[in-house]
Design a protein that fits this description.
The chain is an alpha+beta fold. The protein contains 5 helices and 10 strands.
């Protein structure tokens, strides 16, 4: 790469809920070329004058299709980071996206794996480039939006219980949530036509049957609330 070139990429932070741990996992891709060949990194693609991507969003969908091989329930651009130090090949920049996946999403081949998000955030699993920092920034965006929107529902099962919604919100925020506050949010979404009762119930091995909800056809993007989900946390 010449001194006048800037290496540009689009990278993906794809998250799913883990049913057993009730925590988040992040999708990683094994690099197939240098630098850092063989190491686990965020799925991404290079964007330059020779690519056919019409824009950054098209490049993000190329990452989803060709590298991550997943279909997200929600996708949004988080930001762009660039410096002369993040890539050993020279000055580079990354526009990175956050993708939220259904909890039953599986990897397509041995070159992909889900790892517990905590292992990346606390440094037990070091990622190449500045991918660890990109993950932290993506998770910060998720947490900040989860306080006042319905974003965590994209991590719950498509047909979800109140407990599923509660677990997803707590995983996004990294803290406990008041159950009553969460139920009030679901009622508001129901009144607005964003979610509906499927008329069916989940029958756990222990406890009472649980009502199953689902997002409606009009539910696109996020539902915005006028009150922080953490406002009543002290009463839990």
């Amino acid at each position: 790469m010449s001194s006048v070139e800037v290496l540009a990429s689009v990278d993906l932070i794809a998250l799913r809920m883990d049913a057993e741990s009730r925590g988040l996992s992040v999708l990683l891709h094994r690099r197939e070329r240098e630098p850092f060949m063989g190491q686990w990194a965020l799925p991404g693609v290079i964007v330059n004058g020779s690519t056919r991507d019409a824009n950054l969003e098209a490049a993000a969908h190329r990452v989803l299709r060709d590298k991550a091989q997943v279909l997200p329930r929600h996708l949004e651009q988080v930001g762009t980071e660039g410096s002369a130090e993040r890539d050993p090949r020279g000055w580079s920049m990354s526009t990175y996206y956050l993708a939220l996946l259904a909890p039953d999403t599986e990897t397509a081949d041995d070159g992909l794996r889900f790892v517990p998000l905590g292992e990346v955030l606390d440094g037990r699993l070091a990622l190449p480039f500045d991918h660890g920092q990109l993950v932290r920034l993506g998770v910060e965006r998720l947490a900040s939006k989860s306080v006042y929107t319905s974003l965590p529902l994209y991590l719950a099962p498509p047909r979800f219980t109140v407990l599923d919604a509660l677990n997803a919100a707590q995983a996004c925020l990294g803290t406990t949530i008041n159950n009553t506050s969460l139920r009030k949010r679901l009622e508001r979404m129901k009144d607005a036509g964003w979610i509906r009762d499927t008329g069916e119930k989940n029958f756990p091995k222990m406890g009472r049957p649980q009502q199953l909800w689902e997002l409606t056809e009009q539910a696109e993007g996020v539902f915005v609330f006028d009150r922080s989900l953490l406002a009543d946390r002290a009463s839990t």
